[in-house]
Specification:
This protein has eight helices and seven strands; from the N terminus they run H-H-E-H-E-H-E-E-H-E-H-H-H-E-E. By secondary structure, it is an alpha/beta fold. A seven-stranded mixed β-sheet has the order 3-2-1-4-5-7-6, with helices on both faces. The longest helix is centred in the last third of the chain and has 17 residues. The radius of gyration is 16 Å and the shape is globular.
Length: 219
């Protein structure tokens, strides 16, 4: 069983989750996803952020790409409530909206988005193939998938660098064993997972001192 099988748990833990992940190291890895957005002229980049949680990733990406319109999607109403409040405080209501839905059954037509993103989300999903299939469907031709997931493998010197950051340390202590149980991704597994869903030009880069891995691909 996976945590996403019990969305009510996210309802109970949403404020705590939002607090622990509203810290610089985590937010920097959110913002890095925007580096993979396509360049546009005189048009907004349409982004679907899957498993958006309390809105940290959407807001971080909007700060980097002011030309993006981001739709955050989540199963937990409380998460979306927190996300809406955070977005209002950040003055990004014109850049970000939210929808309550299941990532394996997206309420959008084909060719709706230029990018689909996620931050520490795909590993939680039992039906990863279903999520990627739906993401592929709603992307335009040439559209991109980019997400950050927990990485399997040797990590960098994160403890020495961040041991004073209490929120970061607690989030890692919780994240690492849980992600190991559910299946982390690495430099080989991530591109292979995207390729099976039809994505091409797939690749990876490390994030969060090697604790995370960003995977990307193109439709």
């Amino acid at each position: 069983m996976r945590l996403l099988d019990f969305p009510w748990l996210f309802e109970l833990g949403a404020p705590i989750y939002a607090w622990f992940n509203s810290q610089g190291v985590w937010l920097e890895s959110c913002a890095r996803l925007a580096a993979h957005f396509p360049k546009t002229e005189n048009a907004r980049v349409r982004v679907l952020d899957l498993g958006c949680g309390p809105g940290n990733t959407a807001i971080a990406m909007a700060r980097v790409r002011g030309d993006a319109f981001i739709v955050g999607l989540d199963l937990a109403p409380k998460m979306l409530e927190l996300a809406q409040r955070a977005t209002q405080r950040a003055n990004f209501l014109e850049n970000i909206s939210y929808v309550l839905a299941d990532a394996t059954a997206l309420p959008f037509t084909e060719n709706t988005f230029d990018v689909t993103t996620g931050h520490s989300f795909l590993y939680l999903v039992g039906d990863r193939a279903g999520v990627l299939r739906e993401a592929y469907r709603v992307l335009t031709r040439g559209g991109r998938w980019v997400s950050m997931e927990p990485r399997d493998g040797r990590t960098g010197n994160w403890l020495a660098k961040h041991w004073k950051n209490v929120r970061f340390m607690v989030s890692v202590i919780l994240w690492r064993p849980y992600s190991k149980f559910h299946g982390r991704l690495d430099e080989e597994k991530f591109p292979e997972t995207l390729a099976r869903a039809g994505f091409k030009n797939n690749g990876t880069e490390l994030a969060i001192e090697g604790l995370g891995i960003i995977g990307y691909g193109e439709k």
